Amino acid sequence: MKKIIAGIAALVVAGVGAGIGIAQTQSSSAGASSASSFSALSSSGVSGNVSSVQQSMLSDLAGPAQAAQAKQLFVGSGNTKDYSISATKDSSGGFCVDGSYIAACLDQFPKSGVVYRTAMNTDGAVTSTSKQLISGVVSDQVTSLSAQIGSQLVPITIQNGAFVYVASAPGVWVDQLVATNADGSTANIAISDPNRPTS
Amino acid sequence: MGLALAVLSVIALTAVASAIASTSVYTYLGPAGTAWNQTIYQGPDTFGARYYNRVYMALDPLAVGEMCLRYHRSDLSYTAWQCQAFADIYDGTNPFYATNSSGGRLTQDPAKAQCKFYDEGGGSNEGASNVTCQTTVGLP
DSSP string spanning B59-95? Predict the structure, then answer.
């Protein structure tokens, strides 16, 4: 039922968009990489031990049959020990990801090869002890990822194409993500986080 | 433009409500807004004590920006913004679900939701994107 409602709403929203002249067509962009460049989902070495919560969300996003094939990509440790990310292929050739502060279905990666969400490390109200959290997935083209904070580069661990970054302390804010590709090129992704106080 | 958008929003709301009137789950679309070049559309400020768990954006192939959602709670505190950037992804954030640390739906009930959309734009003919908050009441 939920999917039906979501579908109806999507169609209605699409209708509204069309009514005001916003193009609705989908097309490919140069440099974007397809979901097939996310090989972790095809790897037999990646665990299928997905939590029931993520299984449920992926079922809503991609359907129960696809959710049954989900893989657990990221299991945190250290300051990310409470966080995890799973993903599964969807029926349209893309994939869906769900986990700590991220849920999305993608047909393709952006040119940077990084899909991410900014949040804080709390499910409740933001407090003075809350820290910035960025979670996401990267395409196969990305070999390493760092968080640039001022002039400092902090490496981010990528596990099976997924990552969770938690700031080392409250008030530490990422200015940009720096993704390094297999060919040696880099992509700088500016982070605009409305949780960050404006000075 | 504004009037046309309002009329369309009413039509949209009516269509959704009619489609699901026979169930105990009701879905409402909130007011729609438009983010232009380098501007932020933010809304709604108040929607009543409902519970919003997703937001939609129109599928603008030129859009490069960010979609955000947070909840204002009854004690006047609020959750963190959750934002997902997008660029040349057309359905990656649609719908946009707020999730908790476990990957389940982040819900705050009763609460008011607030969505935010930032459109980077790029040229004089780019960057117009429609966005709307959707609320669902009665989810188990």
Answer: --TT-EEEEEEEEEETTS-BBPPEEEEEES-SSTTSS
Domain that holds residue B117: 2-137
Asked if B81's CB is within 8 angstroms of A118's CB, the reply is yes
Asked whether the ipTM of the predicted complex exceeds the cut of 0.85, the reply is no
C-alpha to C-alpha distance for A41 and A36, rounded to whole angstroms: 9
Paired residues of A82 in beta bridges: none
- Asked if A1's CB is within 8 angstroms of B23's CB, the reply is yes
Task: Kindly identify which residue of chain B lies nearest to residue A191, measuring between CA atoms.
Answer: B85
Give residue limits of the domains in chain A.
31-190
Distance separating alpha carbons of residues A135 and A114, to the nearest angstrom? 10
Other CB atoms within 10 A of residue A39 CB: 12
**Residue A168, min C-alpha distance to chain B (Å):** 17
CATH of the domain at B71: 2.60.120
Say what the pTM is.
Answer: 0.77
- pLDDT at residue A13, rounded to an integer: 33
Residue of B nearest to A13 (CA): B58
Paired strand residues for A135: A117, A164
Are residues A163 and A156 in contact, defined by beta-carbon separation less than 8 angstroms? yes
Closest CA to A114 of A176, A189, A175, A58: A189
Give pLDDT tens digits for B38-74.
Answer: 566 665 554 444 445 566 655 555 556 777 888 877 7
Q: Measure CB to CB from residue B89 to each of A10, A86, A108 and give the nearest one.
A: A108
CA-atom Rg of chain A in angstroms: 18
Quick check: B66 and A192 CB within 8 A? Answer: yes
Cα A148 to Cα A117, A154, A160, A182, B13: the distances in Å are 16, 6, 22, 20, 43
pLDDT in tens, A29-68: 345 665 558 898 888 888 889 999 999 999 988 999 999 9
Please tell me the total count of domains within chain B: 1
Contact A115, A137 (CB under 8 A): yes
Beta bridge pairs of residue A137: A115, A162
Set of chain B residues whose Cβ sits within 8 Å of the Cβ of A84: 102-103
